[in-house]
From TrEMBL:
Belongs to the universal ribosomal protein uS3 family. SUPFAM superfamilies: Prokaryotic type KH domain (KH-domain type II), Ribosomal protein S3 C-terminal domain. GO terms for biological process: translation. Part of the 30S ribosomal subunit. Residues 199-221 have a biased composition (Pro residues). Keywords: Ribonucleoprotein, Ribosomal protein, RNA-binding, rRNA-binding. GO terms for molecular function: rRNA binding; structural constituent of ribosome. GO terms for cellular component: cytosolic small ribosomal subunit. Residues 17-86 form the KH type-2 domain. This is Small ribosomal subunit protein uS3. SMART domains: KH. Residues 192-278 are annotated as: Disordered.
Length: 278
């Protein structure tokens, strides 16, 4: 078998198992399943609103489902694990089953669609789309859509992030298809972004300047210390008496020298007078 045919066969088997579990566990609030291949066999995880009803009394129902998966679909050692679906209002298949059940009980399609969409949005979903198609009010079939919030319709996010569910309501006039698409609240869409508030630009750093010369530490003045020591000594010793300097005496000249100086002055005066006469 080629690789392409192998993948196609596995996809068909998974779809048939999903349809079988939806029919068997409709009353338990079937919310989908995951099937993985392991070395020990085929691991199947079933999500339901009421896990106790999936197991059954004494495990009777889950043993029956395990035998059917082995015989009808030839799965290798199927092992079933049951998990709680959590919040049913955010599961597409659970909401679709509720909508189909409401239509079968006689609810008006517009009331049923609006009610289910309101419950989904109140649960915190980012978006919800409900499509009801079939003979709603007359002999001609038509389609009604109920949309709230934001829904992705194309691309990889529409495949990975959107939870889908489908169910069928059987009425006297015919069958009515119910399709539900939900974006859970904890999903980050690729086109979701937030604009941050502008921040003030940082202040420019000051230009580096020459380092100032180091200021020498002040040293104690030694004169003041000496003065203070001297003051202490003066205070401790008695004050000394002031000494006044004695006037100097002029040297006395002898009488003989005085007589010699007088004739010399007279001769000098006579010579000056003779010069004037000439």
């Amino acid at each position: 078998m080629s690789v392409e045919k192998k993948f196609v066969a596995e996809g068909i088997t998974k779809a048939l198992v999903n349809e079988y579990l939806a029919d068997e566990l409709e009353r338990a609030g079937y919310g989908g399943m995951q099937m993985n291949r392991t070395p020990m066999g085929t691991q199947i995880t079933v999500y339901a609103e009421k896990p106790g009803m999936v197991i059954g009394k004494g495990g009777k129902l889950i043993r029956k489902i395990t035998r059917d998966l082995d015989r009808r679909f030839h799965l290798d050692n199927p092992q079933i694990d049951v998990q709680d679906v959590g919040r049913g209002d955010l599961n597409g298949r659970v909401v679709a089953n509720r909508l189909a059940s409401s239509l079968e009980r006689g609810w008006y399609f517009r009331k049923a669609g609006q009610s289910m969409m309101r419950r989904v949005m109140d649960a915190g979903a980012l978006g919800c789309e409900i499509v009801i198609s079939g003979k709603l009010t007359g002999p001609r079939s038509r389609t009604e859509k109920f949309i709230a919030g934001y829904i992705k319709h194309s691309g990889k996010p529409a495949i990975d992030l959107v939870d889908r569910g489908y169910s069928v309501a059987v009425k006297k006039l015919g069958v009515i298809g119910c399709q539900v698409r939900i974006i859970p609240p904890d999903v980050r869409l690729p086109d979701d972004f937030q604009i941050e508030a502008p921040q003030a630009p940082p202040a420019p750093e000051p230009a580096p300047s020459a380092a100032p010369a180091p200021v020498p530490a002040p040293t104690p003045a030694p004169a003041e210390e000496k003065k203070s020591e001297l003051d202490q000594l003066l205070e401790s010793e008695p004050e000394a008496a002031e000494v006044k300097p004695e006037p100097l005496e002029e040297p006395s000249m002898p009488a003989e020298n005085a007589t010699e100086i007088a004739p010399l002055s007279e001769e000098k005066a006579e010579s000056e007078s003779v010069l004037k006469d000439e």
